[in-house]
Amino acid sequence: xxxxxxxxxxxxxxxxxxxxxxxxxxxxxxxxxxxxxxxxxxxxxxxxxxxxxxxxxxxxxxxxxxxxxxxxxxxxxxxxxxxxxxxxxxxxxxxxxxxxxxxxxxxxxxxxxxxxxxxxxxxxxxxxxxxxxxxxxxxxxxxxxxxxxxxxxxxxxxxxxxxxxxxxxxxxxxxxxxxxxxxxxxxxxxxxxxxxxxxxxxxxxxxxxxxxxxxxxxxxxxxxxxxxxxxxxxxxxxxxxxxxxxxxxxxxxxxxxxxxxxxxxxxxxxxxxxxxxxxxxxxxxxxxxxxxxxxxxxxxxxxxxxxxxxxxxx
Length: 314
Ligand SMILES: [Cu+2]
Description:
Elements: H1 13-46, H2 64-92, E1 103-108, E2 111-116, E3 121-124, E4 126-130, E5 135-141, E6 146-149, E7 157-159, E8 165-169, E9 175-181, E10 193-199, H3 201-212, H4 221-232, H5 235-238, E11 262-263, E12 268-269, H6 272-280, H7 282-285, H8 298-310
Parallel strand pairs: 1-5, 4-10
Antiparallel strand pairs: 1-2, 2-3, 5-8, 6-7, 6-9, 9-10, 11-12
Helix pairs in contact: 1-2, 4-8, 6-8
The site of copper (II) ion has 7 residues, from loops.
């Protein structure tokens, strides 16, 4: 059942409420279907034309009692569904503007910028949260409409330019929950994946502290060369590496890139070899992505990989 998605594997109180509502609705529909099938079968048999019958059977017009019954019952059913839906919405939707968000998720073509406003941490595509804790998330978009969806954890929600939306993000137990952009947003929409990593509180704190660390810039060796290249090439214009002059937000924050599981919102697993492949030609793995082929030589790629990996070894 692992990969059957949210309805079969709800992993947050919000998703449990939504799955519960779905099950109630399906159960009610099945009961109605059963009653109708039985009634139709009974009527077909009981009132079928028998030998000797002639003309129309008895017609029953304007029976007020009957009409009241078949109006009131459906209204009652709709009322029940309405109330169940209201209570589910109350469970699922956070009160907007109640407090500052714990997390801000910003959609870009075609990656997710993840910010933790209280600590200033910024990462991409991979969302760490403490398991069991209710995180208030504000969702924004920098360009077009995207849609955040991690099926096991809850509802879909659009990221609309100029109009922030809010959700709760909760994972009942530790684990990795996968999601994707669920609103077509251009060429690489399919490669706009989400990983939610829910960890026990202590591990989450450790991760957050690791992210807060400002790495020293290596000065010697090939990592030092990489740092120089990064500083002198256009990388600076699009990326942030804290502790250096690079502070742009066109692409992901690379300060703790080596900590992430994937590159390019899921197109490659994050290993030094794959990082080298990505740097050599990102367009080969994510055609149309807004990181150009930087036409780096093999040795430049090697130095930059050494630099980016060195940032997390301190
Ligand atoms: Cu998208």
